[in-house]
Specification:
Blueprint (H helix, E strand, L loop, with lengths): L22 E3 L10 E5 L4 E5 L18 E4 L7 E2 L8 E5 L7 E2 L11 E3 L20 E3 L2 E5 L6 H10 L7 E6 L2 E4 L3 H7 L1 H26 L1 H30 L1
Parallel strand pairs: 3-4, 4-6, 5-7, 6-8, 8-9, 10-11
Antiparallel strand pairs: 1-2, 2-3, 11-12
């Protein structure tokens, strides 16, 4: 029979759901203020629950355990910052915050397999998201971000994400004054490619003309001398031809 905690008092161990057999972790052992932390051996994890604790920044410390399952949802966090405990975290929930930016280093953490960023204010996705391993997932939900034609990589990334069960990212791209599905970004960029090529060609021509004019101004005396020599050679050749023609006529 169990004596503590009160929830399990007078119950036989064999009748207790093993998920309820947990050990609380105090602030002294690294649990952030106003959070609930517990070790759950049945699932081989340590839960750090800081949901709805009115936090404006991610806590600086967490329990010194491996396999952390962190919940920072429903707060006022504006930046997803790198923390050393993320190297010991396999899942983090940051949904329903005010996050607008993500530290690019976060995407490369090997341990972090699941990131939930739904219902935030994400306006940009860093290319480092490609560093996430194939079995890792990140959920943005429905967002609208600023894009450029250099972000064609986002199509491949979205296709890989859509193949994974439970991942539902709907990302809109704002590009060239238009809002399109991010997975179709190459269509608008390919359509505008010829005009871009013409612009580059015209720019190259203008630069070439400008450089030629500079050279002419800088080397005008040398050019005049060359022109004079060429003129002298041409006149001498004509005079020789006239002389030969005259002799032939005689």
């Amino acid at each position: 029979m169990c004596k503590d905690p009160p929830l399990l008092r007078e119950k036989r161990i064999i009748d207790i759901n093993e998920d309820l057999l947990t050990c609380n972790i105090s602030m002294k052992n690294g649990c952030p203020p106003e959070c609930n932390c517990l070790e759950q051996p049945s699932r081989s994890r340590v839960v750090v629950n800081c949901s709805s604790t009115r936090k404006h920044k991610m806590p600086s410390v967490c329990p010194q355990h491996d396999d952390l399952d962190v919940n920072f949802s429903h707060n006022f966090i504006s930046v997803f910052e790198y923390r050393t405990y993320l190297n010991r975290t396999f899942s983090i929930d940051l949904s329903n915050n005010r996050i607008a930016s993500v530290d690019p280093f976060v995407y490369g953490i090997m341990k972090l397999r699941n990131i939930n960023l739904q219902h935030n204010k994400i306006v940009q996705i860093h290319k480092n998201v490609l560093f996430m391993k194939n079995d890792h997932t990140i959920s943005y939900g429905r967002i609208s971000i600023k894009c450029s034609c250099e972000m064609k990589w986002i199509e491949v990334w979205l296709e890989n994400q859509h193949r994974r069960r439970g991942v539902n990212n709907s990302i809109k791209c704002h590009i060239r004054g238009r809002d399109i599905d991010a997975i179709s970004i190459s269509e608008i960029c390919s359509a505008e490619k010829p005009s871009s090529a013409v612009k580059y060609a015209l720019l190259s021509l203008i630069i070439a003309i400008y450089i030629s004019l500079l050279l002419c101004l800088k080397m005008k005396y040398e050019l005049c001398l060359l022109l004079r020599n060429f003129k002298s050679l041409y006149l001498n050749r004509n005079n020789n031809n006239d002389s030969q023609q005259t002799k032939f006529d005689v």
